[in-house]
Design a protein that fits this description.
The protein is α/β, with parallel strands linked by helices. Helices cover about 40% and strands about 20% of the residues. It contains eleven helices and eleven strands. Strand 3 (about 90-95), helix 5 and strand 4 (about 120-125) form a beta-alpha-beta unit. Helix 1 crosses helix 3 (about 30-45). The chain is globular, with a radius of gyration of 21 Å. It starts with a helix and ends in an 8-residue tail after the last helix. InterPro entries: LysR_HTH_N (IPR000847), LysR_subst-bd (IPR005119), WH-like_DNA-bd_sf (IPR036388), WH_DNA-bd_sf (IPR036390). This is DNA-binding transcriptional LysR family regulator.
């Protein structure tokens, strides 16, 4: 058994879908399935049930899950532990795709000024998976969207900025400098999977519905770049950060208009999230990270 077997098992256990787990791991589904079956053979027990309705963990899978998480977390913590023993402690910070460069760079600058001996590893991910990783102590702090309803996590809003509409050329907005949401009622709204940031997509859906936009396309992906093909083809519109963020950058050079929204408050907030019990410990570096995360740079509404 290799460590990658456990990493693959954890991805499939989190997603309960081979295609999504494979995309998360940057693999094809077929080799991932083979690796999981190799692990099942080695352990002598099925870890998942597979049916037309999807996948589920077996009793053996549920028993393995916390142990696999612990093993992988311990191995991943080794570089940081060794660096700390050598006087160069490492902290791991999560970043959701649409966190702005200003938020990221401001945090790193403040942290280096306060604790120059700290080395920082950045871990990208969706907001939902980063929040779970903070709760599991795999991350020291994360910047994400939509906060968290986990009572063990502390959430601080550190940034909010306007969002804009991305809509393809030839959809009736070619000579426009702004757009009202009501004008988009004939087009579907396209997004990545809602489970990437459930609170954000729930609020977005409610906002669009209030303005008469009811049609939806949810792509089976967590990659914001996949939105470009659908929007550029004129099949749908989406919302992007105005002037920044990974989703906005994905549309650079595409035959797409990015238009500010008028008549509605459409904003994307960024939250810093950390474990409250760790910040309360004076010997834990999380308190330093929380201080470096900063305070809101704009209105939080």
């Amino acid at each position: 058994m290799e460590l990658f077997h456990l990493r693959y098992f954890l991805a499939v256990a989190d997603e309960l879908n081979l295609t999504r787990a494979a995309a998360r791991l940057h693999l094809a589904a077929s080799p991932l399935s083979r690796r999981v079956r190799d692990l099942e053979r080695e352990l002598g027990a099925p870890l998942f049930t597979r049916s037309a309705r999807g996948m589920a963990l077996t009793a053996a899978g549920r028993a393995l899950l916390p142990r696999a998480r612990d093993i992988v977390a311990r191995v991943e913590a080794l570089p940081g532990a060794l660096a700390a023993a050598d006087g160069h402690p490492v902290v791991v910070v999560g970043m959701a795709p649409d966190v702005t460069a200003a938020v990221r760079d401001g945090f790193l600058e403040r942290l280096r000024a306060a604790r120059p001996e700290l080395a920082v590893r950045i871990r990208p991910g969706t907001s939902a998976e980063l929040a779970r990783a903070v709760a599991r102590r795999e991350l020291d702090l994360a910047f994400l969207h939509g906060g968290s309803d986990d009572p063990g996590l502390t959430v601080r809003r550190v940034d909010t900025r306007p969002a804009a509409v991305a809509v393809g050329h030839g959809r009736g907005f070619d000579d426009r400098t702004e757009v009202r949401l009501e004008e988009l009622a004939e087009l579907p709204y396209v997004s990545i999977r809602y489970d990437a940031a459930p609170a954000v997509y729930r609020a977005t859906g409610e906002l669009l519905a209030r303005h008469g936009v009811h049609r939806r396309i949810e792509l089976d992906t967590h990659n914001p770049g996949d939105l470009t093909h659908v929007v550029a083809a004129g099949e749908a519109f989406t919302l992007v950060g105005l002037g920044s963020g990974a989703t906005h950058k994905a549309f650079v050079g595409e035959p797409v208009h990015v238009l500010p929204v008028t008549g509605a408050q459409v904003r994307l907030g960024t939250d810093a999230v950390w474990r409250g019990d760790r910040a309360a410990d004076p010997g834990d570096v999380v308190g330093v990270l929380a201080a470096a995360a900063g305070t809101p740079t704009g209105p939080v509404a």
